[in-house]
Amino acid sequence: MSFAKAQDLLRLALIASSRYSGISLAQIRSEFDVSHRTAQRMTAALETTFANVEITDGPDRRRRWRLLDSAIARMEPRQETTIEALEIAALSAHEDNRLRHARALEEMRDRLMSLLPARDALRAEADAEAVLASLGHVARPGPRAAQRPEVMDAVIEALRGPFRLEISYGTKDSKQRIVEPHGVLLGLRSYLVARQPARGPELLNFRMDRIRVAKCLDESFAFESGFSIDTYAAKAFGAYQDPAQYGEVVWKFSPGAAARAAGFQFHPNQKAEHQPDDSLIVCFHAAGWLEMAWFLYQWGDAVEVLEPAGLRDLTKNYRRSDFDALP
Questions:
Q1: 154 with 128, same domain?
Q2: Are residues 69 and 84 in the same domain?
Q3: In the listed set 166, 197, 232, which residue is the last one of a domain according to the structure?
């Protein structure tokens, strides 16, 4: 067995011992970026190497492998990369004003550092600082709407319940609103996705920067059946949701811009096809024409909107030819 395969087997054993429900073939494929057949070979090696492997079939019909009472969990692999990841995650949490998460990540990093010998701890700390310095702006660069850390803390507390939120939204003299939070969309401008029972059952977007005060109430509620924040977010290009605008979007990038456009993921469910003339057509379903127009402006006349007609009309007079570079 090669050293690389041995390292993968040890890592697999560590995962199988640390997850209460074990690890499935699909999770092995994702964790190790391997094929289904390779994942099967890895589980076979796990069963051959370790005597305390428990194999179970879950209610989802997926087989899982777990190591029972494994001493491997007490082994100490090198932690430099783990410490770097915690540092970056904590910094990103600070940038998003998720101070509770930032503190938890920093405490986890400190506990991990305290377990290392002094020499290894100093080296890991120095390596983490060097990586952070070389990465520069770890969080999203550019302008972002400001929001209050205490508001984000209240939202996170409410999502845990889930509990209703009492918010003061908009101007100082605005009335208090009771909302039922379902998730948060983070971005250039962040939004709270919530239902406001007084306005009906539909989900609404509340700009996080316009929430002046938020208080988590001791009132539970039920999430909308089948709700997924990823599915909800995919209905829009950015954050704005408008059912009337939802539909097929088709953009055509010129041959000179096709290679650059191919390096972007414009939407999680997009399809991209290179054309015989070397142009690139990108298709997806979403709403939010104004946010699309803001983005497309950067491409000047290197992109043409084929569908929908409303977006084509919104952008046709703003396709410039004098931009020095593409996004």
A1: no
A2: no
A3: 232
Is the bond leading into 243 cis (omega within 30 degrees of zero)?
no
Position 138 scores a pLDDT of: 45
Domains: count for the chain: 4
Cβ neighbours around 309 below 10 Å, total: 9
In this structure, are 64 and 93 located in the same domain? no
Residue 141 is assigned to a structural domain of this protein: no
Asked whether 84 and 113 are in contact (CB, 8 A), the reply is no
| Helix then strand then coil, % of the chain, to nearest 5 | 45, 25, 35
- End-to-end distance of the chain based on CA atoms, in angstroms? 46
- Range 71-95 burial, b when 16+ CB lie within 10 A, else e: eeeeeeeebbeebbebbbbbbbbbe
Question: DSSP H helical segments within 116-218, as ranges?
Answer: 118-135, 149-160
252-283 pLDDT tens trace: 999 999 999 999 999 989 999 999 999 999 99
For residues 148 and 192, is the Cβ–Cβ distance under 8 A? Answer: no
- 201: domain range? 149-232
φ, ψ of residue 178 in degrees (nearest 5): -105, 120
